[in-house]
Design brief:
Blueprint lengths: L26 H17 L3 H5 L2 E10 L6 E5 L1 H15 L2 E5 L5 E6 L2 E11 L3 E11 L5 E13 L17 H13 L7 E4 L3 H12 L4 E4 L7 H4 L31 H15 L3 E2 L3 E7 L6 E6 L5 E6 L1 E4 L7 E2 L13 E4 L13 E5 L3 H12 L3 E5 L5 E3 L8 H7 L4 H19 L1 H9 L13 H7 L4 E3 L3 H6 L3 E4 L4 E4 L3 E4 L4 E3 L2 E4 L3 E2 L2 H9 L1 H6 L24 E3 L4 H19 L13
Parallel strand pairs: 1-7, 8-9, 8-14, 9-10, 14-27, 16-25, 17-18, 17-25, 18-21, 19-20
Antiparallel strand pairs: 1-2, 3-5, 4-5, 5-6, 6-7, 11-12, 12-13, 15-26, 22-23, 23-24
Pfam family, one: Pyr_redox_3
Keywords: Oxidoreductase
GO molecular function: flavin adenine dinucleotide binding; monooxygenase activity
Length: 597
């Protein structure tokens, strides 16, 4: 255990003064006994006895179920205060463990916990959760992490499965009905979503089955063009079984790393199959909110130039990074360079540069992928690495809905603690040959945000890592060259000059650097400066290591931001939709969000 960083907060046997756990432990008995004690205390609104069931350095993560917000409470004292404030209001009951889920897990030799999933009810909804129990002195078990997640609203179930519409409609009537629905001939939608990529489609699908009338406004000619129009060899880095969309999983015959064009075409199929309402080649020019009613007046310019103003209750921005601009660092001499300079967001295909010499600035996901594709088309490629990169490989199993619950139950604050640091060290051991090979070529490595891995990188930095799909071996083999150790000084006629006096030559320079800017600016361009100033920050971590501004209260009534990759969009789209549905049904208002810490 000397290889791991020391920690006084991890639930190790030493920190908890516990004896090692035997392999024949009855996990089901331990879990059910603890949940019964919690349920008894919760029903009695006895926050003190609830807190006594937790270790001191514990976490309770709640998504809407108790707090109507995304909150993580660290430490038994904060957990007790939250329960004192919430239990009588929320009326949490019917806590029931899935007995088949109780298992003894040993993430490390000095850590063991009993993990189980459970369901519960509140006054307004149905939820599911996960708890993990750590051994303490005298052979007892207490909670180290608890996760509570709102799944549905009472009286307002999703209209799927047995609840879907049983009535037969003939083909003509169906087609005419869909035409009127898509064009909103009879009424205005309740929700307008700006953007028709995965985030917009996912939340629209969630709202559809909750019976909330929704329109997606997409500026491109076709749904999926945001993926279709990028470089021709783009594919998803994460495996396909991690990327499923709500209600309609990808076919099991799909490739592990789906090509972007294939994904774009799937988006069109998704719209058609789920009967989502989309206006393509359309642009939201402005939106104004009535301060008394919170109703939005939204002007949409459609293909052909006609404009329609819609009055809607909710406005959802699903615009990715909005008006954030590609990061094109400015260096003197760009006008002297005789080749081509472009950002990776404008790069289309390596075929255009076959046989030439290329410099790729940037060494994370897009940089490595661009360099790899250029090599395949015969280019002489050098990658300039401005700063160190987290590199890891990934293997996983297909995810089911229960796996989403378990995966997102880990508080980011816990991962940011020494647990994430341990995971990084484990990955380094598994990938030792790969990482040693990269270091031998001078490639600089790091361990991610807080030295805690890629998960926190993705949320805090929106990047900064590379999940290897082949480029690393090309670097190791010398087929992609690496330059680092000195900052760029200027462009030259033939390439780049660095501060240490060295130079790189190339016919094309691709900046595979990230985007910069504030997403709130894009919101302000449509909704006005007052709304922009009122919006909370978007992305990054708050003091509880929850993500700022995304999927949750944005600081302006009935204004939302929906974003993220396919997996988080699948999971968190339900939470955004449930908040909108609850507001529409009059059972939730902003003032009811739990604000105490």
């Amino acid at each position: 255990m000397a290889d791991y960083p020391s920690s006084t907060t991890l639930p190790t046997f030493t920190n908890l003064h516990a004896a090692p756990v035997p392999n024949d432990l009855d996990a089901t008995y331990i879990a059910s006994k603890w949940l019964f004690a919690l349920s008894t205390a919760v029903t009695a609104c006895d926050a003190s006895n609830c807190a006594a069931l937790f270790v001191e350095h514990s976490f309770w993560r709640d998504l809407l179920a108790l707090t109507w917000d995304f909150r993580t409470f660290g430490g038994s004292t904060k957990i007790q205060r939250m329960l004192e404030d919430c239990l009588a209001v929320v009326q949490m009951t019917a806590m029931k463990m899935d007995e088949a889920s109780a298992t003894l897990q040993r993430p490390y030799p000095d850590i063991a916990w009993v993990s189980a999933t459970f369901t519960f009810e509140t006054k307004l909804g149905y939820g599911a959760g996960v708890f993990r129990l750590s051994p303490v002195e005298d052979g007892r078990f207490k909670a180290h992490t608890v996760f509570t997640n709102l799944n549905a609203l009472k009286g307002h179930p999703e209209q799927i499965g047995k609840l879907r519409n049983p009535h037969h409609t003939d083909g003509y009537k169906w087609a005419e009905q869909r035409r009127r629905e898509v064009e909103f001939i009879d009424n205005d939608p309740t929700v307008i979503i700006i953007g028709g990529a995965q985030s917009g489609l996912d939340v629209a699908a969630r709202l559809k089955v909750l019976g909330v009338s929704t329109l997606i406004v997409e500026k491109e000619q076709r749904v999926g063009d945001i993926w279709r129009n990028r470089y021709d060899a783009l594919c998803l880095q994460d495996p396909i079984w991690y990327q499923h969309m709500p209600y309609m999983p990808f076919p099991t015959s799909w490739p592990v790393h789906a090509p972007s064009t294939k994904l774009a075409n799937w988006f069109e199929s998704y719209v058609d199959a789920l009967e989502l309402n989309v206006w393509t080649s359309s642009l939201v020019s402005n939106a104004h909110q009535d301060p008394k009613t919170n109703i939005w007046s939204v002007s949409v310019t459609r293909e052909g130039g006609s404009t329609r103003t819609l009055r809607v209750k909710h406005l959802v921005f699903a615009i990715g990074f909005g008006d954030c601009l590609p990061t094109m660092p400015e260096y003197p001499g760009a006008d002297q360079f005789e080749g081509e300079i472009l950002h990776s967001t404008r790069y289309k295909t390596a075929r255009d540069y076959a046989g030439k010499k290329a410099i790729v600035v940037g060494a994370c996901g897009s940089g490595k992928f661009t360099a790899m594709l250029m090599h395949f088309f015969g280019l002489d490629v050098t990658m300039y690495q401005r700063s160190s990169t987290l590199v890891l490989t990934i293997t996983t199993d297909p995810l089911l809905e229960i796996a989403d619950l378990v995966s997102f139950s880990f508080p980011l604050a816990f991962i940011a603690d020494s647990f994430g640091k341990r995971q990084v060290l484990d990955c380094e051991k598994m990938d030792a040959d790969l990482l040693d090979g990269l270091k031998s070529r001078g490639f600089k490595l790091n361990r991610g945000t807080y030295d805690a891995g890629a998960y926190l990188n993705a949320w805090g930095r929106r990047g900064g890592h590379y999940i290897d799909i082949g480029a690393s071996q090309l670097i190791i083999d010398g087929k992609i060259k690496v330059k680092n150790g000195s900052q760029i000084e200027r462009f030259t006629r033939t390439g780049l000059k660095f501060e240490d006096g060295s130079e790189l030559t190339g016919d094309v320079i691709v900046f595979a650097t990230w985007v910069q800017g504030d997403i709130r600016k894009a919101i302000g361009n449509i909704c006005g400066e007052d709304v922009e100033r009122a919006c909370k920050p978007i992305w990054g971590y708050d003091e509880e290591t929850e993500i700022k501004g995304v999927w949750r209260d944005l600081g302006v009534p009935n204004l939302w931001y929906m974003g993220g990759g396919l997996a988080p969009c699948r999971f968190y789209s339900r939470h955004l939709a449930l908040q909108i549905k609850a507001i529409e049904e009059g059972i939730f208002y902003r003032k009811e969000r739990y604000s105490a810490s």
